[in-house]
Specification:
single chain, 150 residues, 23% strand
């Protein structure tokens, strides 16, 4: 009976270790050859990604780990080019932004959705987004973004 229990664990370990074998990732390759995997640089600790329909961008949550004080949590955007070539796509920070006036909900064009007792934006120094999703907003090409840390 113990041999039967060990077998799935051994198979699982082999599969997991097999995923660790391979060459290290090389330089950024935003325009890879056909059939090859490319990479885009400029991100730290991407945790989740969601496409914004019809707008040609993706939103990414970049989690902040407690032991990496130099990496802040943020939401970033990345334009997805229609054709390869030209400059490599570069992410841009959406929140927290360095040009914000404190990010209070009163300064937003539309009121935030959620707990009405929450009157201020998250502390940017502690912001650590994990999951991210979107839904259509009140106008075309205006999206509501939901972010959760869990």
């Amino acid at each position: 009976m113990t041999h039967i229990r060990r077998y799935p664990a051994i198979v699982g370990m082999v599969v997991l270790l097999g995923g660790c074998v391979g060459e290290p990732r090389g330089d950024c390759q935003p325009w890879p050859e056909a059939g090859k995997l490319g990479t885009i640089c400029g991100f730290e600790s991407v945790e989740d990604i969601v496409g914004v329909p019809d707008d040609g961008i993706v939103l990414l949550s970049q989690i902040r780990y407690p032991d990496t004080a130099d990496v802040t949590g943020r939401i970033s955007g990345l334009e997805i080019p229609r054709r390869p070539g030209g400059d490599a796509p570069k992410p841009w920070p959406l929140w927290p932004r360095t040009d914000m006036d404190g990010g209070s909900p009163a300064s937003l064009a539309y009121p935030p959705v959620g707990d009405p007792t929450c009157k201020t934006a998250p502390n940017p120094d502690l912001f650590s987004p994990h999951g991210i999703d979107i839904r259509p907003g009140p106008r075309p090409h205006l999206w509501q973004v939901a972010v959760v840390a869990h």
